[in-house]
Amino acid sequence: MRRVVLDTNVLVSALWSKQSNPNKVAEMVFTNELTLYLNQKILEEYFEVLYRDKFGFPEEKVSALLHEISKRGIFADSVQSIIHFADESDRKFHDIAKSNNAVLVTGNLKHYPNESFIMNPYDFLHTLGNE
Question: Taking the model in full, what pTM does it have?
Fold first, then answer.
């Protein structure tokens, strides 16, 4: 099974649109087609961001999503990289993916170094033949 790390923006986009590529990727986690890797810091960011009032996501929808992530996700360790990040909060996603041979799926490629294991949702689905 393919290992993935989902940047928070992928989950935000998945909640916005059921027809979106980010939602397709998230659904693949929930149907056990992909194995989600995360750590406590990533889970805390998911909680903090997805419950923000500015998004207006229904609380029960966010709660169900986070419950599934907590239940299905593999909590993993990582080695901290020495790469410079403009936003240090992005490091945790990069390092979990790199340390666990996973693909980092993000809607913000410009926030990360140009590395082959970092993809946007469309390109990731394309590699799987699911676009």
Answer: 0.94
